[in-house]
Amino acid sequence: MPPKKKGGKKGKKGKGKGDKDEGTPEGGGNIATPEPTEKEILLQQELEKVTGDLESTKKRVEELKSYELYYLNTIRRKENEWLQQEGSRVRVESHEYMSYMDKKTTARQTKVITLSDHNKQEIQDIKRQEELLKEEFNQKKQALQNLLFEKQNILKKTTEELAELNTYKELQTEQLNKIKELEKEVMTMRSKHSETIQSLKSTFLKEKREYQQDSDSRIAALEKLANKEAEKCLTDHTNKIKLDNRKLRRELQELIHMTRVYQAHQRDLEEQRKQLLREQQYAEDLKILRSTRQHKVLKAFDLLGEEADVEGETASPS
């Protein structure tokens, strides 16, 4: 804009000189044109030099504009790619979270006995996921800080280059506003990410408390049922032992009674055996006594030759 003004002034000056030149013949007739002085030559050279610098400055400004446009398009493209990646990552994380919640619900119904170990494992998994999220957040934060640092460096260089050109302060202000908007977007994304993490954390803690309460109530119910069953089993077992003891006692009493009967019968049999032995011994003694008496009688009557017959006859009746 100032260069155009300079050009306009130059044109006016040229026209002024032309008017004077045209007016000179009228006033002076055939007066010869004076030779340019050394000062005029230096001013002409300075004018040409300034004109060349102005043209080079315009070219440089055009290059800076094209570079700025390319830089802004690159930033927008990178932002769009990053937003698409973030959207894909959020969808994947949401899908993983839903799958995790489905698995967690299924495990809640099927693994009541191993509840404590399962809770510990889930807590460890959540802690690992939280650490991964923190690490990912720190990495993204570092990446954004690096990007912001690069933008600040580029802005600094651009500001230094544009500081020499007072006519492009408006462009500088626009770039600063865009950078501020980018910084605001970065801060907004950070706050949204922090809110998302806090929401996930609060949701997890709430579900953990509910799950713990449900688990405690189920464990208490199972413990009560187990105690009741144990008491019932103990009572049944005690009653069974009492019945078995009574039955065994009756059987033992019957065995004792039978043993006493058998012992009494054995004593009777023993007495009978002794009686039979005494009777047998008495019969043998009687037989010997008879034989001795007969032998004495036969000897007295000299009937020794017939002793065998007499003994045979005596033995057959007995």
Q: Order of helices and strands, N to C? A: HHHHH
Q: Which stretches are low in confidence, meaning pLDDT under 50 for 5 or more residues running?
A: 1-31
- Rg result: 67 Å
Structural class: mainly alpha
> What gap, in angstroms, lies between the N and C termini?
178 Å
Strand content: under 5%
Number of strands: 0
Shape: rod-shaped
Measured as a percent range, the helix fraction is: over 70%
Biggest sheet character: none
Number of helices: 5
Keywords: Coiled coil
Region (Disordered): 1-38
Pfam families: DUF4515
InterPro entries: DUF4515
Task: Explain how this protein is built.
- Residues 116-192 form a coiled coil.
- Keywords: Coiled coil.
- Residues 94-286 form the DUF4515 domain.
- Pfam families: DUF4515 (PF14988).
- This protein is mainly alpha-helical and 318 residues long.
- Among the domains are: 42-96; 118-268.
- The protein is built from 5 helices and no strands.
- The chain has helices spanning 2-28, 38-110, 115-163, 169-300, 307-315.
- The longest helix is centred in the last third of the chain and has 132 residues, at 169-300.
- The model is unreliable at 1-31 (pLDDT under 50).
